[in-house]
Each structure stands twice: as structure tokens, then as C-alpha cells.
Design a protein that fits this description.
By secondary structure, the chain is an alpha+beta fold. The chain has 17 helices and ten strands.
Length: 595
């Protein structure tokens, strides 16, 4: 594999040298061959090295223990690309920009399509870039109906503008690529107004060869390149692992990359055989299995179904379950992979957040935090042990066109919030009696979108009704900068009606905690809140907390929890025996619910 990649590198360098040698002495656009060599050849060599590394990591993606190699080569490739771009910026953009402007200025009316091709290609590229940015920025807007946005002029305009904007992007991109390929293969446009019809001539054979080569490359790439490993997911996962899992152990990281493969444990290792005094929490990680093209008509809005990853099993009631020790990898899925899938908020297929306007666009730009795994049900009998599809191109097409479903050999998994964002659904399925829900979603206006979504789906799917007491007492932070009057709660109590659902002996209780700022918090929190009016509902897309931001959220959570427990423990019965049953019984009495 290394030898083959080196051959690719040598061939590309040789091609660059050949092109340099055959350019006429007068050069291009009046520039000498030596100047062109100075500007382009060093970046060409660096890009040849980068391309060869891409070929190598693609071919070797299924090799065991190749994660460290990919990280090392990935960082090295970033340096290669940076040096090449800096070189071009200093020499090409500074010295050659005037020539480029002159070429565009000299194009006037009445010229042939061939002379207009550079302009058309350039304009199409600009349009594609602008429309792509617009769609990417606003495609995930909460004003869209699919996000539960309110009906109004802004929401209506958003739904009206986004779909055609995405189409404009695709059309402009195709035009730019078409003109670029025409110039690459034929030196001119395929359409010549002086000749009726299309002047195929000897061009058909060239196009046929190019098509065959493209198909062959696609087949080879699909066979050897792992679609999961070449997305943003691996980048995201490895940094989550380093930041959080690595913080709990003594590490021996690679000196160059800073990563340590031992940070990322198999999730099946988190639950050993139960021993006296060796109890530990049982982790259930919530994931969404995307069924954007499901044939279930009742699921046209949700477009996803629940999927969990735990130390014992992976899967869901609809798809089926597999042993976590052998699912997703011959050695079992890792905690880091499950954690990153559960947080894969940016994904072409996003459950009930999916929008046709951005699905194709996000796939094109490889904004893909989701993960393909074998179907845990009968359809994945031969694939559930694989860590990704063995033939990549068709899953990629399904992802780009929103064709994901749950009845094929591979399923597409993304953020658990794309089905239900609080993790409440799976707790009710397991008939948990005492549940604490921390709602940390971005909900400045307190619309309770995540809570209402969970309660609604639980009642529809599981037949369990949940009613909340004192939910109306939770107040959003006033936009005029005033404070909420003292004594207002940060929490509400939910009554889970297990009795009516299946005749259980007693109901369950939910302690629902909602992040809020009342103006009575400690000085550190208050200072940060006054400087940041959105606190504590700053956009969750912000993944880079400063020290003051992180500490303000941590301190607010501590003060809220400490306040709730202090009031509960003031009850004489609870103070004597502060167990779960007494704690929750006191919370229920406080809102008028029977024990």
C-alpha cells in the first residue's frame, strides 16, 4: 500500500514536471515558464504528497491499529496544505491577481461561448459558494417548521427561500464543474454556436474513457475507503476522547498528535460482573437511527427511531439488539464512538430535524458527524460486526438524498436529540421510578420543545402519560434586563402514570430541572450573566467554552441542585433518612401529588 501510494506521488510530480517542460517559452498570459514554475511547482509537490497520503490512508483504513497513523498523517497533511496555500498567497495572488482581473475585464458583448467560458465558470462558482453558505447557515434555523418554529412571516420566508437556494447551489455547482471539465479535456466549451447541435467529433471517445475511469475509481474507492473514518466524526470523536476520557487516567500520548489510543475504552468494559461493593452506574447512551425515507406514514415527521448503546446491548425495540462486545467492531463498539454519535448534531440526516434543503449540501461538504453501522436486526446478520459499510458509495448516496431507513444491511446513526433530546424515552421504557432530567437545551423563550417532544412520543409509543406540576412557574430571563423575583423555582415535578399504562403498583416521579437565570445567583454567575444576555441559553453550537463561561454554567448547576436538595432535606422525615424514596416523596408532597 505504501509502495502504491509512493507511485502515485511520483506520477504526480512527474506530471507536473512534464507540463512545465512542454509549455511554450512565452509561457501563459505573458508570464514566463520560470515564473509559473516558481509559483506553482512547490505547491504542486506538496499537494502531490498530500494526495498520496490520502490514497495511503484510504487503502489502509481497514488495517488494525491504523487510528494513530491517520491522526499523524492528518496533522502532517494540514501542514503541507498550509505551506502550499501560504506560498500561493504570497506569490500567485500578489503578483498574478492583476492579470486575472484583466482577463475578466476584456470579455465583452458578442463574444463566443468559448470566450465567455471562464466568466461563466467563475460566476457559477461564486453563486455556488454564496448559495451554499446561505443554505448551510439558515438550513438549521429554528424558524423552519421542521424545527418546531412558530408560524409567521419570517418562518414562512425561510421555508420559501431555502429550497430554491439549495437548488441554485446545485445548478451553479454543476455549471462550474461542467465548464471546468470542458476546458480540461477539450480546451473549449462543448457547445459552439457556429456548429448546429453538439460538436461531438472525436470527443465522445474521450468522454467515454473519462466516464469509465471515473466509475473504476469510484468502485475501487468504495471498496477500500471506509466512509465512516473519512468524515468529521473521527475528528470530533478523537478530540472528545482526549478532552474527557483522557482526563480520568494517566496518559502516554503521542508527542506529535497528543492522542493516546488507550483513552478510548470498549463500552462493554464499563459493566463488569456484579460483585459485593463493586456497584457502578449503568450507562445508556441515546442515539437516533435515521429513517428519513421510512415507509411508515405515521413517522413522516419524526424520521427517526430510538437506538441505545449500553455496556450490554446496542440497538432498539424497532431494529433489534446485539451484544455490545461484538457490535460495531470485532472487539465491540468503543465508548468514544458511542459518545460522538450521541453528540452528532450536524448531520445530513437528522431525524425530525432533517431538511431536504441542506441534506445534499452537507454531504457534499462532508459535514457528516453521523456514523454508519451494521443493522442490529435480521437485515444486518452479516454486517453487525463491521465498523462501517464494506462498499461506501451507495450508503453515501443514501445519506446525500435522504434515503436512510432501518431495513437494510447498514443503518445511519446520529445525535440522540434527533429523536428525543432528554434521554427520557428510554428511561420510561425501562419503567424507572425515579428520574432526574437536566434540560440544558438552548431554549431562551422557555418553549419546552424538548420536553414536549419527549412527553408526546412516550405517550404515543409507550402508552405512558406524564403530567407536570408547577411547570408554569418556570420563567425565562426577561429580555429587558430585569431580574425574576426571588423565590421562583428552577424545577418542576412530573408524575409518570405507570398505573394506568400497565397496572403498576405505583407511579414514577420526574425531577425536571431547567437552566435559568433569576438574578439572585452568586456574584461570579451574575457578573457573567450581565455581560452575556443569552446566558444560560447560549447557542449549543458554541463548543469552545472559555474558563469563565464553563465555570459560570458549572456554578449555576451546582447552586440550582444545592437549592433543591436543601429545601427537600429541610423536611424532618427526609432529613432523618435521605434516601431516594423519601427525597422523591417529599418532592411529590411539595406539589400536592400523593406519595
Amino acid at each position: 500500500m505504501w509502495t502504491l501510494s509512493g507511485s502515485v506521488y511520483g506520477a504526480l510530480v512527474g506530471l507536473g514536471l512534464y507540463v512545465y517542460l512542454v509549455i511554450p517559452d512565452q509561457g501563459v498570459a505573458g508570464l514566463s515558464v520560470s515564473f509559473l514554475h516558481l509559483v506553482f511547482f512547490i505547491p504542486w509537490i506538496l499537494l502531490s504528497q498530500l494526495f498520496a497520503q490520502m490514497v495511503f490512508v484510504g487503502l489502509a483504513s481497514y488495517e488494525s491499529e491504523s487510528e494513530a497513523d491517520r491522526e499523524w498523517l492528518g496533522r502532517a497533511s494540514g501542514w503541507f496544505l498550509s505551506v502550499g496555500l501560504i506560498w500561493l498567497a504570497l506569490l500567485f495572488l500578489v503578483l498574478y491577481f492583476g492579470v486575472v482581473v484583466a482577463i475578466f475585464v476584456t470579455i465583452g458583448n458578442g463574444q463566443s461561448i468559448e470566450s465567455l467560458s471562464p466568466m461563466i465558470a467563475g460566476i457559477s462558482g461564486i453563486i455556488a459558494g454564496i448559495s451554499g453558505i446561505i443554505t448551510a447557515l439558515f438550513g438549521a434555523s429554528r424558524l423552519l417548521a421542521v424545527k418546531g418554529g412558530s408560524i409567521g412571516v419570517r418562518s414562512y420566508l425561510m421555508r420559501l427561500v431555502l429550497p430554491p437556494t439549495a437548488l441554485v447551489f446545485v445548478a451553479a455547482l454543476l455549471i462550474a464543474v461542467s465548464y471546468t471539465l470542458d476546458g480540461l479535456f477539450f480546451g473549449s466549451s462543448m457547445v459552439d454556436p457556429s456548429t448546429p447541435g453538439f460538436p461531438w467529433g472525436g470527443r465522445f471517445s474521450v468522454l467515454l474513457v473519462a466516464f469509465v475511469v471515473t466509475v473504476a475509481v469510484a468502485i475501487v474507492a468504495s471498496k477500500y475507503i471506509n466512509i465512516n473514518r473519512f468524515s468529521l466524526h473521527a475528528f470530533y470523536r478523537n478530540r472528545l476522547v482526549r478532552a474527557f476520557l483522557g482526563a480520568s487516567r494517566v496518559r502516554t500520548p503521542d508527542l506529535f498528535t497528543g492522542f493516546d489510543a488507550a483513552d478510548n475504552r470498549r463500552i462493554s468494559q464499563l459493566w463488569p460482573a456484579r460483585e459485593e461493593g463493586n456497584w457502578r452506574p449503568f450507562q445508556i447512551i441515546n442515539v437516533a437511527l435515521n429513517v428519513v425515507s421510512s415507509e411508515r406514514l405515521s413517522w413522516q415527521e419524526r424520521k427517526a427511531e430510538p437506538f441505545i448503546v449500553s455496556p450490554l446491548y446496542c440497538g432498539g425495540d424497532y431494529a433489534g439488539y446485539r451484544d455490545s462486545a461484538i457490535y460495531g467492531d470485532p472487539k465491540g463498539i468503543t465508548l468514544g464512538t458511542a459518545m460522538a454519535i450521541s453528540g452528532a448534531a450536524a448531520s445530513p440526516n437528522m431525524g425530525y430535524h432533517s431538511s431536504p434543503a441542506i441534506t445534499f449540501l452537507m454531504t457534499m461538504f462532508n459535514v457528516r458527524l453521523g456514523w454508519w453501522l451494521g443493522n442490529p436486526g435480521s437485515a444486518g446478520e452479516q454486517t453487525f460486526r463491521n465498523e462501517g459499510p464494506t462498499f461506501a458509495i451507495w450508503p453515501l448516496v443514501e445519506e446525500a438524498l435522504g434515503l436512510t431507513t432501518d431495513d437494510r444491511a447498514y443503518v445511519y446513526l446520529s445525535d440522540g436529540g434527533h429523536f428525543e433530546n432528554l434521554g427520557l424515552y428510554e428511561m420510561i421504557r425501562r419503567r424507572c421510578r425515579y428520574i432526574v432530567v437536566s434540560d440544558a437545551g438552548c431554549d431562551r423563550d422557555f418553549t419546552f420543545e424538548d420536553l414536549s417532544n419527549a412527553v408526546r412520543k412516550i405517550e404515543i409509543d409507550l402508552g405512558v402519560t406524564i403530567s407536570f406540576k408547577k411547570l408554569e412557574k418556570l420563567k425565562p430571563r426577561p429580555r429587558d434586563g430585569t431580574d425574576i423575583e426571588p423565590g421562583q423555582p428552577y424545577h418542576a415535578i412530573g408524575d409518570i402514570d405507570y398505573r394506568a399504562a400497565d397496572g403498576a403498583s405505583e407511579n414514577g416521579t420526574i425531577l425536571y430541572v431547567k437552566a435559568g437565570y433569576h438574578g439572585v445567583e452568586s456574584a461570579g454567575i451574575r457578573g457573567y450573566a450581565l455581560a452575556n444576555p443569552d446566558f444560560p441559553h447560549q447557542p449549543t453550537i458554541d463548543q469552545w467554552f472559555t474558563e469563565s463561561q464553563f465555570e459560570s454554567y458549572r456554578a449555576l448547576g451546582f447552586e440550582i441542585t444545592d437549592g433543591i436538595l436543601s429545601r427537600v432535606l429541610a423536611d424532618p422525615v427526609c432529613a432523618t433518612n435521605p434516601g431516594f424514596e423519601n427525597l422523591f416523596a417529599t418532592l411529590r408532597r411539595g406539589v400536592g401529588l400523593p406519595r
